[in-house]
Fold this sequence. Notes:
Number of strands of chain B: 3
CATH architecture of chain B: Alpha-Beta Complex
Distance between the termini of chain A: 51 Å
Helix content of chain B: 40-55%
CATH class of chain B: Alpha Beta
Helix content of chain A: 25-40%
Strand content of chain A: 15-25%
Number of helices of chain B: 5
Number of strands of chain A: 17
CATH architecture of the largest domain in chain A: 3-Layer(aba) Sandwich
Order of helices and strands of chain A: EEEHHEHEHEHEHEEEHEEHHEEHHEEHEH
Order of helices and strands of chain B: HEEEHHHH
Shape of chain B: globular
Largest interface: A-B, 20 and 23 residues
Strand order of the largest sheet of chain A: 4-10-9-8-7-5-6
Strand content of chain B: 15-25%
Largest sheet of chain B: 3 strands, antiparallel
Distance between the termini of chain B: 44 Å
CATH topology of the largest domain in chain A: Aspartate Aminotransferase, domain 2
Number of domains of chain B: 1
Oligomer: heterodimer
Amino acid sequence: MISTYGWKEDFPIFKRKINGKNIVYLDSTATTQKPKKVIDAIVDYYENYNANVHRSVYKLADDATEIYEKSRVKIADFIGSKGEEIIFTRNTTESLNLLSYSLEETINKGERILITSMEHHSNILPWMRLEERGVKLDYVNFDADGLLDLEDLKAKLKKETKIVSVTHQSNVLGTINPISEIGKMAKENGSTFIVDAAQSVPHMPFRIKEEMDFVAFSGHKMLGPMGIGVLYGKYDLLDRMPPFNRGGEMIKDVDFHNVVFEDPPIKFEAGTPNVEGAVGLAAAVDYLKAIGMENVRTHEKHLTSMTLEKLDEMKNVIYYGPRDPEKRGGVIAFNVKNEAEIKRKLEKRNIKVDGLYHSHDIATFLDDRNVYVRSGHHCAEPLMRTLGLTGTARASYYVYNGDEDVTAFLNSLGEINVQRRSHG
Amino acid sequence: MRSTYNDEVMDRYENPVKYGKMEKYDLKIEDVSTTCGDKIALFIRLNQGKIEDIRWEGEGCILSVVSTDMFCEDAVGKNIESFKELDEVKYIESFPVKISPGRINCVLLPLRAVKRGMKEK
């Protein structure tokens, strides 16, 4: 039986007490906790089916291959693609690096790649790498509400723009980008369109659309195990692309100086793959399907609305990204104003008064209260620079968070204000 | 409840005793952590290797500010060479509150700055 969301019984980690108290886990944007079903599926695989896949001809190897390929199809169904269009990688970062290497021959000196200022480093650095080859990297700006500036996108989408790669949902601002609209603009321009879906596939209904050439996401951000990621690619594109890694499994025929590669997706899966990861991710997909992705999204919207309403009342808290929960996911980056620092800086007549607590201090303060939030730059330094910050704290929600977590978080955050007064 | 930000830490943070520029100094050591945004400058006046006075300026998280201010206060009268030998674990243990592993770099900021500054001297 799968519980309704907001229940923690399905997730063994929530049995753990730290300092005698329950933990309030608000860092699902970084990684999610795992339901018992996922853990059991991995154990079951190793106890009953383990053998290397796509190699041997005996029964156990057939079973392992079957369970691995069934996992692939399950994940394909979840996003509305075909099994042969799903490549297993380690994570979103590896999926995007695969594209950077396997697409590099399609882009020449003087041509351009368009990304946005709200990308995670994993959708920046693989493209920055191509600047060494004389390719120019352009960034679409976002506005004061954290929404992507589509006029700026239009202006920067040039004839020479060969690749457009955009995050579906920002891991800091929470902004949900109009990915289909952007994709259509990219396709009209003749560009390859890539979606970083690391923060969307886990949190909302997601279907592959015609305008999406490639889509990358990670298993561990959607209740699955670490070390398994996905790259969706249109079959005819995958078929034309050279492999990323070379070695075991990915060949049809090899002689001393020649090789014929396997067809996609195996062409891109050199070496023994992460079968346990695929099995675990398939179990995670089953779990999410039982809840329903529409319900996941509705639940997170509810928790986000509840949080933003309270944060609006807290005069010392600043949060970033769109105010409208329809336009954002359940990830809230914030800072807390620091009166002592403002006072000291004003005394020094230093005009650069930001007067914020350091995000690590907010996170440690909350950690003392068993509330676990992320702090720092969230692997999005260009985004932080755009906001004029060195970091933020960040709370994020998922299926196992309930109203009680929001309350615990906001009560603890409220204590930053009164902690000194309570000691006299 | 563990309380990292107890009165001792917060009093020191809000009323640092060694904060502010020094007019005449023999050694200035600057340290920047771009990922954290911490920036400190240490101003040291020496007399035959002994620290006659030391002050600091800059910004950082509460733990790095408190650690830097306490470090400066303790350092007065000590031989600057003695910091070369100062053990990081011992230094962390001397901090007034227990620090989680993720925050150790914040507390070590002044010690590492001085060690590095002396190497470059």
